[in-house]
Amino acid sequence: MDGHIHALEIVLLLLLAFVVAFAALARKLKTPYPIVLVIAGLVLGFIPGIPPIHLNPEAIFLVVLPPLLYSAAWATSWRDFRFHLTSILMLAFGLVAFTVIGIALAAPHVFPGFTWQLGFVLGAVVSTTDAIAATSIARRVGLPRTIVDILEGESLINDASGLLALEFGVAMLVRSQFPSATEGMLRLLYLIFAGLAVGLLIGKFVEWFEYHIEDGPIEIAFSILVPYAAYLAAEAIRGSGVFAVVACGLYLSRKSARFFSPQVRLQAFAFWDSFTFILNGFVFVLIGLQLPYVLAGMHGISLRQAIVYGLIFSAIVIALRLFWTYPGARVSYWIRTRLLHQSYKCPAARQTFVVGWTGMRGVIALAAALSLPEKLANGDPFPQRNLIIFLTFIVIFVTLVVQGLTLPWIIRKLGLAHAAGPNCEEREARRIIAQTVLDRIQETRTQDRPEFAPIYEDLHQHYRHRLAAARTGLEPDTDDISDHIVRAQDLSLELLRTERETALALRSEGRISDDVLRTLEYDLDLREAQLTVTEDAA
Description:
Blueprint: H1 2-29, H2 33-44, H3 57-74, H4 78-83, H5 85-110, H6 116-125, H7 132-141, H8 145-174, H9 181-211, H10 216-236, H11 241-259, H12 262-289, H13 291-296, H14 303-339, H15 349-357, H16 363-370, H17 385-413, H18 424-445, H19 453-472, H20 485-508, H21 514-537
Helix pairs in contact: 1-2, 1-12, 2-12, 2-17, 3-10, 3-11, 3-12, 3-16, 5-6, 5-8, 5-14, 6-8, 7-8, 7-17, 8-9, 8-11, 9-10, 9-11, 10-11, 10-12, 12-21, 14-15, 14-17, 16-17, 18-19, 18-20, 20-21
């Protein structure tokens, strides 16, 4: 027992060292770290002496998936997610169904021994995307924010539709159960609404709990439990754990501006940035390390033939996504403008192509393939299981590495790359906040004692500078707190609260996104934390 624990410790330490080293190399090469980590894991898997590390699909679904979904949902702007929801659903549900059906029809004609049922399972396995690499590239080369929002939204919820399709496919093969269209639709609706209900209920409880506690370590530890609680609770009632985690994360992200103190928010964001980086790093290295296991399971087919099948299958998967995105974009545009009356410009063909080219697969697809049962209900081996796993691995490798490395070049060639310009929403928000605070200073000054007039002069001058900076787009000067420490700090904290309330009001009115609010909050949190530390020292 002690030897097993010791070996596990060594493996975890080695993995962490790999993640840190190759992520640093990726930064030096200016290449998204998922691509470098997958290639590194692939190479490491064949080095003699490297301890064998087998990917457990249950560990991925129950340990890795919930916190990564939760963190992604927390960082998502609800305003932008809601605005692009039609386009997101067209990819997360429409494209998933199109991929599954397309592969189910094509597989019997491409792969010997495949039936349409096996093709259905194979399509469900590879129908989910992993947008980490795509969005990291998109941000670095300046892809329009609209495309990034749609890609991130798709990756948040297409796991649920893909795993539901896999559930149906396995039931057809293992137990010869063929659900009707009505049964499938009812199951999908139950998955969605049960997951959403569980996620919002847990979000409500967490919100209540956060209002009754003010302790950074406890709140951060509690935040780790939240995605697991939402996921497991939804799965316990056969709802969608994915939707539960996403709903909980989106809800708490909006509410956290009220119940998190500035100090806790700074600590929590720093912790979750590191935590999700480590999890993602482990995941992408593990993908590469699985190739020896995948090859060991290949029987009855040569490696060369299997690679040819893998490349053909990768081309089919990529082509299906590209084929869907063009009519899907048109349908989304029609729904958004004609039915929802949104002010939305139809995406150009080059933008649609980039959305189609960013269908990169990740660890969820590999975990889905590895989770396939080894035997059917009658005791026969699951047909073509090893080939399905191999084809999935090749698709992951091709879409991550080939599409990932070519995406920056394609974006530049299509003229979609642009330097990050000023954020007009943020600048306007800072202007409104500064003007509101100046009005508040004037109002408070008339009600305060005359001897505090110098304090108000200092603060008035400070916020005049901030207002001028907001209008010109220049950085404001560093805070200069008056020597009248007690009163000046009280007033400064009060004015910071006014800034915070104004920013929240702008978010509530839909005038700024959650991303802009988080930028403003970070600035306010730092200033308030500085004032609080100064006050405690005094």
